[in-house]
Amino acid sequence: MISPSDDPLQALQAASDLLRALASPVRIGIVRELSGGGKYVHELVTVLGVSQPLVSQHLRVLRTSRIVTARRQARETQYSLTDDHVAHIVLDAIRHAQE
Q1: Which of 18, 39, 47, 72 is surrounded by the fewest CB atoms within 10 Å?
Q2: What is the DSSP letter of 65?
Q3: Residue 22 phi, psi (nearest 5)
Q4: How would residue 8 be classed by pLDDT, with cut points 50, 70 and 90?
Q5: The pTM is what?
Q6: Are 22 and 86 a contacting pair, CB within 8 Å?
Q7: Measured between alpha carbons, how far is residue 27 from residues 7, 9, 93, 97 in Å?
């Protein structure tokens, strides 16, 4: 396995992939909402004011990028952030944009 110190471009590519996965207002909104804890799709739909299929499409991108995880509970799926690092990036970006 190549560590980032062995191949600095690999680390830059990984960072680029992360930022590309976040490059949507809806996905940024999802991460912002999940920074407070796990949520169900219908909760995200209500808070973000977008359709359920659109939220599901964006959640799929975030899951593929391993930014969020899904946990099935009965007939619903609860989504959570994989870790808090991404939340810090998103919340800092939102604060910076509001300055």
Answers
A1: 72
A2: T
A3: -90, -5
A4: confident
A5: 0.88
A6: yes
A7: 29, 26, 13, 16
